[in-house]
Specification:
- This protein has strands at residues 2-6, 14-20, 23-30, 33-38, 52-54, 59-61, 68-70, 87-93, 96-103.
- It is mainly beta and 106 residues long.
- The protein contains no helices and 9 strands.
- The protein is globular.
- The chain has a single domain (2-103), classed as Rieske Iron-sulfur Protein (3-layer Sandwich).
Length: 106
């Protein structure tokens, strides 16, 4: 597990690119929850952390073509992406955001 940020320093509705064991991960805060998802869109080689976070539906949208990915499952909810991206276990412990370096089990 890797400490990637201070939870109190993350603004709700935003994504931040971090590195976890050499892998780019987008860490997203929505209110009191934190999510970790692979930072590269499965449709185009674009950083998802640059995209819009949709808090109500727990999605992140790629800025290149508008594909939205579910932050819980990694599944694309809109085209043109058809392949999921990896999701990682993330938790907050004593204000530290901790991300598991292994993919979360589905």
């Amino acid at each position: 597990m890797t400490v990637v940020a201070k939870f109190s320093e993350l603004e709700s509705g935003t994504a931040h690119k971090v590195m976890v064991d050499g892998v780019a991960v987008a860490v997203v805060r929505i209110e009191d929850e934190v999510f970790a998802i692979a930072d590269t869109c499965s449709h185009a080689d674009i950083s998802l952390s640059l995209g819009m976070v949709w808090c109500e539906t727990k999605q992140i949208e790629c800025i290149k073509h508008g594909s939205a990915f579910n932050l819980v499952t990694g599944q694309p909810d809109t085209f043109p992406a058809t392949q999921p991206v990896a999701v990682y276990s993330a938790e907050v412990v004593n204000d530290e955001v901790i991300v598991e370096s292994q993919k979360a089990k589905s």
